[in-house]
Write a structure and sequence with these properties.
The chain has about 100 residues and is mostly helical. It contains seven helices and no strands.
């Protein structure tokens, strides 16, 4: 569930950074662009009753108290370590905060 929760926020980050492979993936999946693909992922999550933001599953004080710990764990994640786009700590923090509040765009 935690991977799914962060997926649309990470995809939005890639879109904002201009990652061309996201556009290619969206096109191959039949979407008219990456934004529509991200919307479809988000809507699918809603349709199958997955949380759409971290605040639905953890309280604000706990989340922000553990934010640096979560950030450091994310930096060590396989996907981030081997990604062609190396997000900075500030990028990761922004993704986490956006996911907490549900600010997809």
């Amino acid at each position: 569930m935690s991977v799914a929760l962060f997926t649309p926020y990470v995809l939005q980050f890639y879109l904002e950074k201009g990652v061309a492979r996201l556009q290619e993936l969206a096109k191959k999946l039949g979407f008219e662009g990456a934004e529509r693909f991200i919307d479809a992922v988000y809507n699918l999550m809603s349709d199958i009753n997955l949380p759409l933001k971290a605040s639905e599953i953890v309280g604000e004080s706990i989340f922000f108290e553990k934010l640096e710990e979560i950030l450091n764990a994310a930096k060590g994640d396989f996907v981030i370590r081997f990604s062609s786009l190396k997000p900075s700590d500030e990028d990761i923090r922004s993704i986490l905060e956006r996911a907490y509040w549900g600010n997809i765009k």
